[in-house]
Specification:
Layout: H1 4-7, E1 8-13, E2 22-24, H2 26-29, E3 45-49, E4 63-64, E5 71-73, H3 74-80, E6 87-95, E7 101-110, E8 123-125, E9 132-133, E10 136-137, E11 141-144, H4 149-152, E12 162-164, E13 173-176, H5 177-185, E14 191-195
Parallel strand pairs: 3-6
Antiparallel strand pairs: 1-13, 1-14, 2-3, 4-5, 5-7, 6-7, 8-11, 9-10, 12-13
């Protein structure tokens, strides 16, 4: 049996590179790009860094981190887009607060997250210990993941190299080791990877 916990990694922003954190403008935030599919042909999503100048991110292969998604440069998008599950790359713009702009970037538009965490083997904590309140399911905080082979076996590997986990309290992006290899090969800054088998909640903040 294939051990997906050895093949997949969680992708996080590296806390030592806060300059790569970005915020959507009010109009973009209202478009729910992290939960609803956007139609091509509309305005690009617009994000701003917390730095005055964007000159720190002028490479061909860059990644930025809005809450609930990622934004990547055009050349990185080409490397990643064939393996997306339940998402697509949508045109975006990243600006410095005062200076600099990149229009060759794409935001990950997530519209179909994948529920593939094993309820019996993952460690999940429910607020107050309740799994539902008044008939409404409560989303748990996952302290460690165990991926379900029953779910993943049904999806061809090339169609799930990148996916977002469903039915948890925060957005977690999972990537196959083939994707991790791309980031290391291109020496891309600002990102951390944690193998699923080794990840424990909180590692991403250190």
């Amino acid at each position: 049996m294939k051990d997906y916990n050895e093949d997949y990694y969680l992708l996080f922003a590296n806390p030592d590179y806060e300059e790569y954190d970005i915020e959507p403008d009010d109009s973009s935030a209202k478009r729910n790009y992290d939960s609803e599919e956007l139609d091509f042909g509309q305005k690009p999503l617009i994000f701003t860094t917390e730095t005055s100048d964007l000159s720190f991110a002028n490479g061909d292969y860059e990644i930025f981190f809005p809450i609930g998604s990622i934004v990547v440069t055009d050349k990185l998008k080409v490397k990643l887009e064939e393996g997306l599950y339940g998402s697509k790359f949508y045109p975006a713009i990243v600006k410095g607060e005062d200076k600099g702009i990149r229009e060759d970037v794409w935001a990950l538009n997530v519209f179909k997250p994948l529920d593939c965490w094993d309820r019996n083997k993952s460690i999940a904590v429910y607020p107050g210990g309740a799994k539902s309140l008044q008939g409404i399911d409560v989303l748990p905080s996952i302290k460690s993941f165990h991926l379900s082979h029953e779910v993943l076996d049904e999806i061809p590997e090339n169609d799930r190299l990148i996916f977002v986990m469903d039915n948890t309290d925060v957005t977690n992006i999972f990537v196959h080791r083939r994707v991790v290899d791309i980031f290391f090969d291109k020496n891309i800054k600002g990102v951390n990877f944690f193998k699923v088998s080794q990840y424990r909640f909180g590692m991403e903040f250190v």
